[in-house]
Amino acid sequence: ARLDHLYVHESVENVIPPEAFVEAFDHLDIPVDLVGDGESYDETDAVATYVPKPEFLDAGWVHCIRAGYDEFDTEAYEAAGVPLTNSTGIHDTTVSEVAIGYMVSLARLLHVYRDNQNEGNWYTPDYERPFTVENERLCVVGLGTIGQGIAERADALGMDVVGVRRSDESVPGVSEIFDPADLHDAIADARFVALALPHTPETEGLIGDDEFDVMRDDAYLVNVARGPLVDERALVDALERDAIAGAGLDVFETEPLPDDSPLWDFEEVIISPHKGSATNRYHLDIADLVSENVERYQIGETLRNRVA
Ligand code: NAD
Fold first, then answer.
1. Alpha helix ranges (H) inside the chain
2. pLDDT tens-digit readout, 82-94
3. What's the pLDDT tens digit per position in 25-82?
4. What DSSP element (H or E) covers 45?
5. CA–CA separation, 33 vs 21, rounded Å?
6. Residue 255 is a catalytic residue
7. What does the pLDDT read at residue 299?
8. Of the candidates 251, 231, 283, which has an alpha carbon nearest to the alpha carbon of residue 98?
9. Distance, CA of 173 to CA of 161 (rounded, Å)
10. Is residue 202 within 6 Å of ligand 1 at its C-beta?
């Protein structure tokens, strides 16, 4: 069946302006409309959405506008025969720039200077504290779109980049690839450990007490992927006992990060409110991907980024 309609569920407003997103489909030859909950769909309808809703299982195709589709029940989509696609493949620049920003800031203390600026302090850190990221080892765990984006940029800054990946195929900018089973060897020598994995049963709690013990005590954790990859209790504990030096975190076990989280209070932790992909062009990046898949759907070609 061909698509007659593309619906944009209002939940996209979590990350992009819905009206601008709808307008970005002006060139499509099917109508595009914004919808709320409780609509009914059939196989000639496509839905682009941020959250899952049961009624989407009646549509012809559903696109999750996020890369992380862990809130969607892929088995239900498979059982219903409804293709589900996600927005992997468009975050190489946006999310990896945030990871690079954390690392440069943590090394050169930009976050500390800003904290002091807020108090009007002309601050002089201990001589030993600032360092260059150049020549420091970065271990990127997960070398997909974001992981490769981080690796390439870190390599350009002169960092010594290694990575963890299920396949041993080489990746530009990465000097050594470790198997996931050898995670501890991969992270042991790294000054920075950056997580770029999806949240799956396999990756949940990947970084916990044991990993913080293996990491250098002057190492920084960078998480721009998903909060549950890290055991947050273990992270707070590691920071408190100086088992690691600090962290740059865009994602958390609970979002928004609760007011009483100890993570707010560490000088050496930079917190951004899950804004790794937030730029003023994000709606256009997503619309390009969805438009490409509308065209593919209409001519019966395999959809890009099909995850169920
Ligand atoms: P991607 O699918 O391109 O890359 C994920 C990579 O992880 C793949 O190469 C996959 O093979 C690998 N992988 C999966 N399980 C693994 C395991 N157990 N061990 C080693 N490697 C494993 O996805 P992406 O676009 O790079 O995004 C990665 C994740 O980042 C998403 O799933 C999402 O949760 C998160 N994300 C966060 C933001 C943000 O705003 N902070 C934005 C986009 C995506």
1. 18-23, 74-80, 92-108, 110-118, 145-156, 183-188, 209-214, 232-240, 282-298
2. 999 999 999 999 9
3. 999 999 999 999 999 999 999 999 999 999 999 999 999 999 999 999 999 999 999 9
4. strand 45-49
5. 10
6. yes
7. 96
8. 251
9. 7
10. yes
143 lines ligand 1 (CB under 6 A): yes
Ligand 1 centroid – CA 198 distance (Å): 4
Active site residue 295: no
Name the helix (H) or strand (E) containing 253.
none
The structure tokens listed for 224 are: 């721009």
CA distance linking residue 186 with residue 211, whole number of Å: 11
Bridge partners of 271?
A: 249
Distance CA 13, CA 2 (A): 27
- Write down the pLDDT at residue 103: 99
* Cβ of 9 below 6 Å from ligand 1: no
142 C-alpha to center of ligand 1: Å?
A: 6
Residue of minimum CA distance from atom 4 in ligand 1:
144
Cut 0.90: pTM above it = yes
Closest ligand 1 atom to 277 CA: 40
Rounded mean pLDDT, 195-213: 97
C-beta of residue 167 within 8 angstroms of C-beta of residue 189: no
Q: In this structure, what token pair is assigned to residue 118?
A: 């807020």
Q: Which two tokens stand for residue 134?
A: 């150049």
Would you say 94 and 73 are in contact if contact means Cβ atoms under 8 Å apart?
A: no
The pair phi, psi for residue 124, each rounded to 5°, is: -115, 115
